[in-house]
Design a protein that fits this description.
heterodimer; A: 259 residues; two-stranded antiparallel sheet; 12 helices; ABC-2 type transport system permease protein (chain B)
């Protein structure tokens, strides 16, 4: 409860800071629109040449893009402002030292205390595309519920992956994998069936981008599958546990930015 | 001649400096190849029996690696932190440093990305007509100039706004959509295709890749855009420098 209150206060302060710069707000809104527009346009081009892609229709693809955008928006709002470029901002510049001295969980402070409210525009636009995709589709209550559970699981996995990448900085402070992570993230916008088998296996089991959009969208459109649902929840629990463990191990190694 | 010598020195210096950041360069390679790789997989799924799709996208990956530009990081940040002042005081054009770093990064990206291109080529059993590859050289060179000019032009907006990354990001989206990465422009709907053929983005990416994979195209179209962008960059640079106030002055 205390942590939630901290998130709320941080969000409120960040929102007030953000709206003070109206031109920046305009830029962020425009970029969110064009970014999503580009993604949707790239898919619509494909559907001028084919009726389905890897078994996904145009409407289903829109659901996928909407779900992807939704999670991307939440990641950009609550996770990226904390963990992006962590080796530089957290370790080398000594911000982590400050977190360790504060009376709250250092993992929480380092991974969730800051936010970027303007990025929520992406979330809202994602909802719009999702609505566009599901218009005219018949959805089951079980499908919607399993979509919700899998989206939450996808978010937890996203947070855990970001923490794990940040933790690498405890062992290799110069290793900067943010660009790599953001590049791999783009693959989540497409169903894994589009990719060749080795990439499909990696995206499902090693770097589970499939869990971000593909799996929840399939559950929403084609109904829930117990195995997938349980697998998604277990993946989220395991990823979060691994992230917590890596953080603790990393902190044991950490001796301060100036030491 | 003096400019060429200065550029040579700067290039050597930058190549050596970046050689220590090979891991970061490798992540930049991954970033550069992801969009064309997605295009490759998507269009191969649409046309599974068409070998020209694989050939085209392998060429796009290579062209992208050879023409990547990061002036929003290498140049705009110097405006923001005020270190552009040091460059302005040197007895040489500022752009020499920018071009030197640009060429050094491209050389490293091409070198580090070559195995990915080879791997993709072998995996897809792509065969190239080497005379077409040779014929594409001037197109690739002009594409490199165009991408640099376009990115540098957008990076110059840092004189007016601190949202240069958003602006360059928007420019990247246009290049992705209309330059031949999202789809070969022959596959775009008619109206889009006509627009794409006129705008400069096709000359930055799709055109050299098409030539390398056996297609035809016009060098004149690229040259016209080079002239236009050089003129615009020159004007914007002059206005921007007049506006620039160094940090700490």
């Amino acid at each position: 409860m205390k942590l939630l209150r901290l998130v709320g206060v941080g969000f409120s302060m960040a929102l007030r800071r953000s709206v003070a710069f109206r031109v920046n707000l305009l830029f962020d809104v425009l970029l969110a629109f064009t970014g999503l527009g580009t993604a949707v346009a790239a898919v619509l081009i494909v559907f001028t040449r084919a009726d389905s892609l890897a078994g996904w229709s145009k409407a289903e693809f829109l659901v996928l893009i909407g779900t992807y955008q939704l999670i991307t928006g939440l990641r950009a709002t609550f996770i990226d402002p904390n963990l992006s470029w962590f080796p530089e901002t957290g370790i080398r510049n000594g911000k982590l030292d400050g977190y360790l001295l504060q009376p709250a969980s250092s993992l929480f402070l380092a991974s969730l205390s800051l936010s970027s409210p303007l990025a929520l525009i992406q979330f809202v636009l994602g909802l719009g595309v999702l609505g566009w995709g599901i218009a005219g589709q018949s959805l089951s209550v079980a499908g919607v519920l399993s979509w919700l559970v899998l989206v939450v699981a996808g978010l937890v996995v996203t947070w855990a992956l970001s923490v794990l990448l940040a933790c690498l900085a405890f062992w290799a402070p110069k290793l900067q994998l943010d660009v790599f992570f953001h590049s791999a993230w783009q693959l989540g916008r497409y169903p894994t069936d589009v990719f060749a088998r080795p990439i499909r296996v990696i995206l499902t089991y090693v770097f589970p981008m499939a869990l971000i959009a593909s799996v929840p969208s399939a559950a929403l459109l084609r109904g829930p599958r117990l195995g997938v649902l349980v697998g998604g929840v277990l993946a989220a629990v395991a990823a979060a546990g691994l992230a917590g463990l890596a953080w603790q191990r990393g902190l044991r190694r950490y001796t301060g930015a100036t030491s | 001649m003096r400019t060429a010598v200065l550029l040579g020195f700067r290039l050597r210096q930058e190549v050596l400096e970046w050689s220590g950041a090979w891991w970061f360069l490798l992540t930049l390679v991954v970033q550069a190849v992801v969009a064309p790789l997605i295009g490759l997989f998507v269009w191969s799924a649409v046309y599974p029996d068409d070998p020209s799709i694989g050939r085209y996208y392998v060429a796009v990956i290579l062209v992208t690696l050879m023409t990547e530009s990061f002036e929003q990081h290498t140049f705009s940040e110097r405006i923001y932190d005020g270190t552009l002042s040091h460059e302005l005081l040197r007895p040489q054009p500022v752009v020499i440093g920018v071009i030197g770093m640009n060429l050094a990064i491209r050389a490293w990206l091409t070198l580090l990305g070559a195995p990915i291109v080879l791997l993709a080529g072998i995996a897809l059993q792509v065969g190239f007509d080497w005379s077409a590859v040779l014929r594409s050289t001037p197109y690739v060179a002009l594409a490199a100039v165009l991408v640099f000019l376009w990115t540098f032009l957008l990076a110059l907006t840092a004189f007016w706004t601190d949202r240069v990354h958003a602006i360059v990001g928007f420019g990247g989206q246009l290049t992705f959509l209309l330059g031949g990465t999202a789809a070969p422009i022959a596959l775009l709907p008619d109206t889009w295709r006509r627009v794409a053929e006129v705008l400069p983005f096709y000359g930055m990416n799709g055109l050299p890749a098409e030539i390398a994979s056996g297609g035809k195209g016009s060098l004149g179209y690229q040259l016209v855009w080079v002239v236009v962008l050089v003129a615009v960059v020159t004007v914007v640079w002059r206005i921007g420098v007049r506006r620039y106030t160094a940090v700490g002055s």
